[in-house]
Amino acid sequence: MRSPDVRFLLNRSDSGIFPLRASALSALLALILACGPRNHAPEVPATPIGPAYGLPDSTYAFSTSTSDPDGDSVALEFSWGSSTATERTGLMAGGEQVVRYNHWRIPRVYKIRVRAIDKKGRASDWTPEVEIEIVHPDSLPLTPLRPEGPDSVRVGFIEEYSFPTRGPPGESLVLTFDWGDIRIWEEWEISCAAGETVRIRQAFPNEGDWHVRARAQDGRTETRSPWSAGHRTKVRDAPTTGWERVYDAEEFYSVAPTGDGDLALTGAWGLLGGLVLLKADMSGNVVWWQEYESLGFDGVSVRETSDGGLIVAGSWLWMPGSGTDIARTDGNGRLLWHKYYGRSYTGCGVRQAPDGGFVVATGYSLLKTDKYGDSLWAVECGAWYVELTPDRGYVVSGFRMGSTALTKFDSTGAVLWSRLLGAPPVYGVAIEVLPDGGYILAGDSAGETLLWKVNADGKPIWKRRCFGVGDNWVGDVSVATNGDVLLSGTADNAPYLARTDAQGKLKWQRRLCREGFCVELLPTADGGCVVAGADWGEELYGAALWKVDENGGIGPEGYKAGAGARGGARTAWRARAERLRSAMRGERGVR
Description:
This protein is mainly beta. The protein contains three helices and 43 strands. Among the domains are: 53-136, Immunoglobulins (Immunoglobulin-like, Sandwich), CATH 2.60.40; 140-236, Immunoglobulins (Immunoglobulin-like, Sandwich); 251-380 and 574-591, Neuraminidase. Helix content is 6%, strand content 46%.
């Protein structure tokens, strides 16, 4: 159907519309066509991104983007912080990332903003202002900002602090830290780039109200900034049933329960090593103490035997490749026999087998002996930890082919399955058999502590990155009475302990003392644990035993009791601890 003629309708007198002349009609139609769709302003550009600081006459980049609701091309106008310092780009399609460069000569703060203008001249609002501070080179390095971290912590517990730095891009800095409690880290400084935020996990060994701060040193001129404003941290210790005891020996490596409710501990007692074996009650009091001058090896692992005696495995950690030793004693520590196995292995872990013999993890193989210590068979598998399984077999964890290795044996030494669980370089050094037939494993890689749960066939159920505390290595893993997971280890030359829930979620982590190491732990009936290691303190130092309660407490300031070691050089102790670490990692040079 044809539409009625507009001119006809407008000129009809009976339509109620006054007649129009042809010229007026033409003008009306031209006005309608000229108006067309409405032109909208461009979107406000994204807030420009660029450096917060700069140097005079150096060029710096700022980027932004915008779009136009009508699809028009747009130009961007940059205001560089003064009435005359503006710059407009050419027209471009909306949505493009735009980068523009500018330099400033006079040191002061400049405020930068941007707006968009479409091809028809319609402008958007200005963006929010961003600032760049041009600083004189003589004022470098700039003082770091106030640190960020917890306001209240407990003694010994590891918490994270952030240290934001300032300065022109490309400036290299070295940070020094003052924790407020007399500790100033000049011997352990951190390099970073200006503008970077440095994060450090740290623990306070003493109660007090401490102000944490930092200062920067220029990487080129070695000029130092003033100290930053301090972040106040209240450090308190909660009531605890825990304690620490330090003994007249160099180091403890292993702790095990005895049938009468006491503890067996073994380690090294001489400057160049030598087996020390003792029995202590659950308060750390010594029941008996034995040093074996005729046995030239350090006790790395101890367990009670079925007759109430003790079996000890170890190696002379002072000398790489010294081989594996095992010794058996009665319940009072009197030596019954001693066996030496060459083959340049390191005795790492020992358990009594169901048939009365013994299985020994030697770092590179699983060794089986009879009840007199005579070798029956050995299988190379990469073995640091060995545990008995409910089917009278053995499960071994260690490091093999650049990965965490888990191997299951039957009672005859036949391999039932073998798994590689981690990408290199991950070190599997600890294992615990779970009541459901599965396993918990712990290892370390690139400063992170890794925790796995695997099923009875060694297939992973989950894997967690629990925490990272610098240059760390894991010593032991075990399960507390409530199902939580306990991890011991060493980080930045200090012993640490951590607790997670049954799914590997971190509950807490703490340092046990300022310097030293710890390896094996034993859960206790009250939900806590005991941990064996060494405390390399300035006043009281030597082999250490910690009793830690369920909440990580070990008493005010890590309450210590004991005589301490006889003054051996701590450099020698550290060397021996490194030998132990190397054995755990399966590194070359330990065979």
